[in-house]
Write a structure and sequence with these properties.
Strand content: 25-35%
Distance between the termini: 50 Å
Shape: elongated
CATH superfamily of the largest domain: Dihydrodipicolinate Reductase, domain 2
CATH class of the largest domain: Alpha Beta
Number of domains: 3
CATH topology of the largest domain: Dihydrodipicolinate Reductase, domain 2
Largest sheet: 6 strands, parallel
CATH architecture of the largest domain: 2-Layer Sandwich
Radius of gyration: 23 Å
Number of helices: 15
Structural class: alpha/beta
Strand order of the largest sheet: 3-2-1-4-5-6
């Protein structure tokens, strides 16, 4: 029997144990040997749990046990998860994780440490929860050049935006409902301010382009400013508003950003609703491929963790398969003002003002909404060019949303 340890016995950690227990015969057949949970590291005790006798409170017990081949880290946050992961890899133990904060902040270092010690560091569950996305990028799409990735990467914000669109709910009311249902934390800042999505798009950008951008340097705008005015414009234009993490190359440099976007009905992400996630990968041979499913939750995320465990313990994964990343420098990162797309502006004014805006923004795509306002969607141009074009009209936008075509 192959022995593992689980670090953190919260939602995902306990879910991982549940998957290993529920599917133990199937997993043993696919792994070639049974997998046992020898230790569970947590501050708490779980006397009623079937594995309650495995709980320890000292990481050294795990690190010093030669029978433990693999550590599954699901503690959340950077510390002490980073320190425990580093210690496990230094001890020659492979690590799997769902912790996007650790991967996005320390991935370069930890992958190199895994290689140095003949171990593996896998993190399928860190981006899309139960949606397979990291493994397909590394295997199925390995013969493709990744051109761009756009994703609805956070189920909490997607639920809120869906409620605002379909039921006309205000942001605050939709957030309270998400919290009541357990979709949002008591402190939802990481979700609604876009920080969670920024960590995930940093990981996807690194997988696609080989450089890991500090999530704190990624231009990030959350959904707290979205109002009924935004959803009314989206409805008029036949679009949905989604919080999108996007990455692509611009002039040989890597662009990554998170912001609310207008998503037209022709884009597959338009109808990804409620707590579901969708990740749209554009590559030069396959074209567009959509990865869709439950982006969070106990068992969906745990299933991805267990898949990584099986890959390592069945020797399908090795240190030679680990991605080669380096830390992004300023020269690697594209200027956000160079990113080209269509942009939707809400402007207060008369038909003559609308004509001026359409001419400057090289478009005929314009609709009037209530209260003497109109929404105009520019031609595709850089943020710098669009700002200059609008400034030339003397008009001021009440808001601007990028359009994800």
């Amino acid at each position: 029997m192959k022995q593992i340890a689980i670090l953190g016995f919260g939602v995902v950690g306990s879910g991982t144990a549940e998957v290993l227990l529920e599917n133990q015969k199937l997993i043993a057949a696919r792994c070639g040997e049974a997998i046992g949970v020898k230790y569970i590291l947590d501050l708490r005790d779980f006397p009623e749990h079937p594995l309650g006798d495995r709980v320890v409170h000292d990481i050294r017990v795990i690190l010093e046990d030669p029978e433990v081949e693999l550590v599954a880290e699901m503690m959340g946050g950077s510390h002490p998860a980073y320190e425990f992961t580093r210690a496990a890899l230094e001890a020659g133990k492979s690590v799997v994780t769902s912790n996007k904060e650790v991967v996005s902040n320390f991935g370069v270092e930890l992958l190199e440490l895994a290689r140095k010690n003949g171990a593996c560091y896998l993190f399928e569950a860190s981006v899309g929860g139960g949606i397979p996305i990291i493994r397909p990028l590394q295997t199925d799409l390995v013969g493709n050049e990744i051109l761009a990735i756009s994703g609805i990467l956070n189920g909490t914000t997607n639920y809120i935006l869906t409620k605002m669109k379909n039921e006309g709910a205000a942001f605050d009311d939709a957030l309270k409902e998400a919290q009541r249902l357990g979709y949002a934390e008591a402190n939802p800042a990481a979700d609604v301010e876009g920080l969670d999505a920024a960590r995930k798009i940093a990981i996807l950008a690194a997988l696609s382009f080989g450089v890991l951008i500090d999530p704190k340097s990624i231009p990030t705008e959350g959904i707290t400013g979205i109002t009924s005015a935004h959803t009314a414009v989206a409805d008029k234009l036949g679009c949905s508003i989604k919080l999108i993490g996007h990455t692509e190359r611009i002039g040989g440099r890597v662009y990554a950003a998170v912001s609310p976007c207008l998503v037209p009905s022709a884009n597959p992400l338009c109808n990804v609703d409620d707590v579901y996630n969708g990740i749209l990968v554009d590559s030069n041979m396959l074209g567009r491929a959509l990865f869709y499913g439950a982006g969070a939750g106990k068992l969906p995320t745990a299933s991805a963790v267990v898949a990584d465990i099986i890959d390592i313990l069945s020797h399908r994964a090795s240190d030679r398969m680990l991605p080669q990343w380096r830390t992004a420098t300023e020269d690697d990162i594209a200027d956000a003002s160079d990113y080209s797309c269509r942009r939707c502006y809400l402007i207060e004014g008369c038909p003559m003002c609308a004509a001026k805006a359409k001419a400057a923004l090289r478009t005929e795509d314009c609709v009037f909404v209530e209260d003497g306002r109109f929404a105009v969607v520019s031609a595709s141009m850089s943020a710098r060019e669009a700002a200059a074009a609008l400034a030339s009209t003397g008009l001021e936008a009440l808001f601007c949303l990028p359009v994800l075509d």
